[in-house]
Specification:
- By secondary structure, the chain is mainly alpha-helical.
- The protein has a domain of 86 residues.
- The chain has eight helices and no strands.
- Helix 3 runs antiparallel to helix 4 and helix 4 packs antiparallel against helix 6.
- It is elongated and about 70 Å long.
């Protein structure tokens, strides 16, 4: 059962000439999607490349607003931090050599990279960048239907 018509925005009241500060001032402004967003200067390297690949599509899908933009920037900051941790490991000559150089009370860059990537994934999940949504996008591609034993296993639930 519907709750009726959604309330007008403050801008709509002002356009209609029905704006009353005592009634409408606390409604704030509407959150219109941003048509495009430039990458912040603080985001560099691989994080900037990832921004250029993902954010235009999010803007096109009308998912980025003034309010969500700082959260989005924060996600790419975490991605950048994770990549910097991974570079430390590569500079040491790989995972095994890096782990040998660790002292007893030093922070492990691999653990930090994982933590930072999880933060990135958590934030990007709010924008629909999850494995489930990626599968939905890929779902438009025609998939070969299973036949024979594979089909039977899928029906039974073991495949």
């Amino acid at each position: 059962m519907g709750r009726g018509r959604p309330p007008k925005t403050v801008e709509q009241h002002k356009q209609d000439g029905t704006y009353q500060p005592c009634r409408h001032a606390d409604r704030g402004t509407s959150l219109e999607p941003l048509p495009g967003v430039d990458c912040p200067a603080s985001i560099t390297g691989e994080a900037r490349e990832l921004w250029d690949a993902i954010v235009p599509a999010l803007c096109k899908a009308r998912m980025v607003t003034r309010v969500s933009l700082p959260t989005l920037e924060h996600a790419f900051f975490w991605w950048q931090q994770a990549q910097e941790c991974r570079k430390l490991v590569e500079q040491a000559g790989g995972v095994a050599k890096y782990l040998l150089t660790l002292g007893p009370n030093t922070k492990n860059a691999l653990d930090l990279a994982l933590k930072y990537e999880q933060e990135y994934q958590k934030i990007m999940g709010q924008f629909g960048d999850t494995p489930v949504n990626a599968a939905r996008v890929r779902g438009n591609v025609s998939e070969k239907k299973p036949d024979g034993t594979e089909a039977i296993l899928r029906i039974v639930g073991n495949g």
